[in-house]
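Whiteboard transcription, Tuesday session. T.W. wrote the structure tokens on the left side:
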């Protein structure tokens, strides 16, 4: 999957969160809960995914927009406690 992002936003994310946008390539999409981001009237469709990163047991949040053959990353961070709880509830409700 192709992953695009703004290099300046990526640099800020590295400085503030120690999470490069390149790491989104390690997201385990099979664990993802993806919802549309409808908080604002964006010029393109946006989605928020909660999923595990690589072999970690830590949930991460990635906001993205679909592009041809992949995604463009808008934001990427570790999930907070509220988001972890919401994710767990969502997974349990899917069973």
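and on the right, the sequence the group agreed on:
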């Amino acid at each position: 999957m192709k992953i695009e992002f703004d290099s300046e936003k990526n640099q800020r994310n590295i400085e503030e969160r120690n999470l490069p946008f390149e790491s989104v390539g390690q997201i385990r999409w099979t664990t993802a809960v993806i919802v549309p981001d409808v908080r604002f009237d964006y010029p393109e469709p946006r989605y928020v995914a909660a999923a595990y990163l690589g072999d970690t047991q830590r949930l991460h949040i990635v906001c993205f927009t679909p592009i041809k053959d992949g995604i463009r990353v808008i934001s990427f961070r570790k999930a907070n406690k509220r988001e972890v709880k919401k994710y767990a509830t969502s997974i349990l409700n899917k069973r």
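Someone added at the bottom: The first helix runs from residue 7 to 17.
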